[in-house]
Amino acid sequence: MIPLVAVAHGSRDPRSAASIHSLLDVVRSLRPEMDVRGCFLDLCAPRLSDVLRGPSVVVPLLLGKAYHARVDVPAAVAESRVPAVVTDVLGPDPRLESAALRRLSEAGVSFGDRSLGVVLAGAGSSHAPANEAVSRVARRWARESGWAGVEAAFASIASPSVPEAIDRLRMKGATKIAVASWFLAPGLLPDKVASLAGDAVVARPLGDDVEVAQLVLDRYDEALARQTIAA
To answer: Name one Pfam family in it (predicted).
Structure first.
């Protein structure tokens, strides 16, 4: 069986790598016979070049198709000179939304609370379509949740910021605020979001959610169905 090589961005925060490894443990539990290898683009080990040792399917553990997905991952695979296929990123996919909503529920948030405003906080990118993908999720939640409002916000580069999104929700009548995480793992940017959220309830990152793990496997299966990888 061709290995699944899951590559995350990487962080100096040890919680980030631990969260990625926990997610991959769930992936392995769903398909015990598979060779699942975890690695990182930067800041921690192992790197992608350390684990690409032959024909592989590389699954970027990225929620959107921003710079890392469009440039860094393909470049690292090309540099390795092994016969590997790079799958689509994880998003957009309804299972990411389900995981984010489960994290909100774990934090005590429920649907239909008209006094509640929800910020959907993501990393932010200079690539506008990546930001728009997060905004689309927020608009869908706003239509379907029964909350006072839902606003997308970004930790860096893009607007609005978390405080700006909270102000917008207050103007819509929200008296309570919760922040949903559009991050896969803890780290610098999720911590920045939490620090800017004031007294809001802040949900934890998606992490080792079983639907996220299934999504990783589906990206692998889809890539194999599209392309034969030379042995």
So the answer is: CbiX
